Amino acid sequence: MVLERRRDYDFYGHPVQIKRRARSARRRAKFQRRVEDNQMCAFDLLATVAGKLFLQEKEHPLTSSDKSSEKDQQGFVKEERRDAGEPFKAELSNEGCHRRCDRGFVKDDSKKADKPFKAELSGEGSSDIKCLSNSQVQSESCFFKELPHSEIYGNSHVASVMANSSYPERFGAERLADGKNHNKVENLGSKVELGLSSKVELGSSGSPDRSECNLGGDVSKGKDELHKFAKAPVVTSTEMRCLDDPLDEKPPVQISSGGNAKLSGCVDNMSCSSLSEGYDNVPVVSRDDDENFLGCDNPSFETKSFRPISRIGDQSIRKTLAAKYCKVAQQSKHDTLSNSVEVVNGNLKDTYTNPGMSSLGAHQYSSLGSKESHVNLRIKSFRVPELFIEIPETATIESLKRSVMEAVTAVLGGGLRVGVILQGKKVRDDNKTLLQAGISHDNQLDALGFTLEPISPQSPTSLCAADSRHIPTADKPQLLPRYPSSAAIHQRNQSCSDVLPEHRVTSLGNLVDSDHDSAPSPVKTPVDKRLADSRALVTVPEMGMQALSLLPVPQKPKRPETVQRRIRRPFSVAEVEALVQAVEKLGTGRWRDVKLRAFDNAKHRTYVDLKDKWKTLVHTARISPQQRRGEPVPQELLDRVLTAHAFWSQHQTKQQLNKQHQQQQQQPQTCLLLQ
DNA sequence: CTTAGGG
DNA sequence: CCCTAAG
Asked: For chain A, which has fewer Cβ within 10 Å, the N-terminal or C-terminal residue?
């Protein structure tokens, strides 16, 4: 008799049917999970870097004085545009079922109310914003997908948008402490203020579970008006893009409720309520496609936690970008102090700037005239060291995006160090004081820059040597990350293709142009000299959650890419509910089926995870409530756990007994035969 | 690839 | 969550 591998009756004696998923699909899903994790790591790191460098800031005197902004009580700047232009508007709305923050951007692990990351928007001048072409490497990742006005290149206004996500405590808390910072939105709520005349839409439609959130805000601008910062809720897992039609402006919308972000487009109470529950000040809206449980018919199912979660859709290009920022900063001859150091830069290839080097400029403020002067720097972005990617022409845009993501991930995750450059010179002596180095509060710090450098310098050429013949398939483009030494920074003004034509290295900048699905592609030639340096266009690549079908170039063992441990994602009650239900139905030995049944859409929950969770659930159910930790699981559920566990354990025992019986019955026969 | 268990 | 032996 053949042992039946699958039990066909559940806890309740009902027949059970489980769909079998194609192996390839499973494999792919698994791979995607890995990829996802890798991506996350990179961005976590990125965020960390940014967080560390993001010091308290103050508005530069020049800047602030020049502003004609009036703030409301919360510190929001409400301004009337002086020029023609549309008020800035950002929209973030939320809809769909379960969402959470993308991993790495909002921590939920710590029980303390996580502050949401904020979007920082600063604008200046006529506020024409536009993504430089190189930033469009990932069209979706572009905060401002497209900017209406073309004068961009002609004006010297600065417009930057930055969304800082993770490590809010660093990004936000400290800054909020600065009550004088009128340019900052103290309220983490939903208001966004900025000097942009463009309307920006965060979040897009189309995807069913897309989140959107409105950040309303008026903006004004003035030539010398520098930055207006606003902390705005940022929607992760959401596409942020600029509206195609600049004229399609709507009046600024304030979705704030009591100064807090409110989700518009909330489809289910859950998402709304969850936001309001203990997250009043958390304007973060996120969605998590992964959080959907198939087979979870419990209407009360809800996800309260805004845990960083990412998803990896294997089909469409759903982006779960961790944070997408598209920053455009332009140097104004007037505002020598206006440019700030930029941190967290996802510039994959900047043909007009110095790769690997962050834009120069830092706000410098004197603070507390006590004994010591302080230098306050605001690093808005970091440019990722130059990357080179080789990809066959036949590759899809999607694979290109993945390639870029991979490359960025490889670099960021590979280990970076920060370099300091002052007056164009690298400051090598780490032991010097800032003062000794010439960085003092009464200095102009716009000559101060930071670089991100690979920890272990490697020969760039090795990576570029790949021949297209090595490229397995169109879906597996070669990654050619390259780490230029910072020393070469000032020489890198050429496009990638100029540098390595013979290697057939495709310049991202070139490809980018074709990456415009919806917006008129502003094929701007990155030539405007004025745009040169300090215009870090910060584009944090969206987190393409789909699997990167490419693998890092093997011959280039990057730093001991310590395979980061997956982030911890505590099971929510809803998940537990789903798990329990599935196990009741399927039993304890069919985790893959459980996964398929109840967590098919939760890419980050593997069957092993479920099995482990069940294990802990059983344990939890057995210990006293006082010993339990984490989000309390309803006793009712725990009871069911024990019941189901007992049932299936018994079931298993019975099976084993049966098996033994069968064997015993067969053995005699065998013996007889042998005899 | 799945399970089952220990770590 | 990770790692891995086993099947």
From this structure: C
Give the range among A72-86, A280-294, A553-567 with minimum mean pLDDT: A72-86
Q: Are A253 and A260 in contact, with CB atoms under 8 Å apart?
A: no
Distance CA A132, CA A347 (A): 10
pLDDT per residue over A348-380, tens digit each?
A: 233 235 333 333 333 333 333 445 677 777 787
A619 touches strand C (CB under 7 A): no
CA angle at residue A135 from A552 to A503, to 5 degrees?
A: 45
Separation of alpha carbons A599 and A210, rounded Å: 20
Query: Rounded CA gap, A516 and A138, in Å?
Result: 9
DSSP element (H, E) containing A498: helix A496-499
pTM recorded for the entire structure: 0.30
* For residue A88, pLDDT beyond 80: no
Output the six-digit token pair for A612: 């482990």
- Say yes or no to pLDDT of A644 above 80: yes
What are the CA-CA distances from residue A10 to residues A14, A563, A614 (Å)? 5, 39, 17
Residue A269: pLDDT above 90? no
Full DSSP string of A43-81: HHHHHHHHHHH-------HHHHHH---EE-TTS-EE---
Please name the residues in contact with A564: beta carbons below 8 A apart, sequence gap of 6 or more. Answer: A37, A38, A40, A41, A44, A413
> Cβ of A609 < 7 Å from strand B?
no
Q: Is the CB of A590 under 7 A from strand B?
A: yes
List the one residue out of A383, A309, A397, A360 whose CA is nearest residue A601. A309
Cβ neighbours of residue A177 closer than 8 Å, sequence gap 6 or more: A56
Distance CA A24, CA A369 (A): 65
Q: How far apart are CA A88 and CA A197, in angstroms?
A: 5
Give which of A237, A141, A231 is closest to A540, Cα–Cα: A141
E strand map for A401-528? 416-422, 425-427, 448-454, 478-481
A604 CB-to-strand C distance under 7 Å: yes
Q: How far apart are CA A447 and CA A358, in angstroms?
A: 11
CA distance linking residue A121 with residue A341, whole number of Å: 15
Per-residue pLDDT, A390: 74
DSSP-derived letter for residue A9 is: B
For residue A242, pLDDT over 50 is answered with no
Residue A613 beta carbon within 7 A of nucleic strand B: no
What number of other Cβ atoms are within 10 A of residue A543's Cβ? 31
Q: What CA–CA distance (Å, rounded) separates A505 from A480?
A: 8
In which band, very low, low, confident or very high, does the pLDDT at A620 lie, cut at 50, 70 and 90?
very high
**Nucleic strand B within 7 A of Cβ A593:** yes
Average pLDDT, chain A: 47
C strand bases under 7 Å from protein CB:
1-4
Q: Which nucleotide's C1' sits nearest to the alpha carbon of A604?
A: C1
Would the pLDDT of A414 be above 90?
no
Does the pLDDT at position A627 exceed 70?
A: yes
